[in-house]
Amino acid sequence: MGSSISFAKELRIKNTETEKDLWYFLRAKRFYGLKFRRQHPIGPYIVDFVCLEKLIIIELDGGQHAEQKEKDQNRDQWLKKEKYKILRFWNHEFYENREIVLEQIYLVCFGHPPPTPSPQGRGDK
Asked: Residues 30-45: what's their mean pLDDT?
């Protein structure tokens, strides 16, 4: 177990730019008060991001994942048996559609779309 924790710490230091950018939105309970952890060990695996309260894992995949589909599928099956929901996004997907990615995360966490702000001026008198 100690080695997976050390490896997780090393991965936190070597975050990809995409992981750093998503972490900005998830860290310090910024994402609707939910606590996310990054590069967190779960069983034999280290996941990119996890909300333990909601049992939701978020994975950001770069090009190397296109060649390791079977490995990712086995990993996902194991995590699903442990009751985790896994959201996978390609790095470019996050950059091209950040708001949609964040909305999908919200939808899985809370089961409904995020609240929209009321139109300006409503309720002000």
From this structure: 96
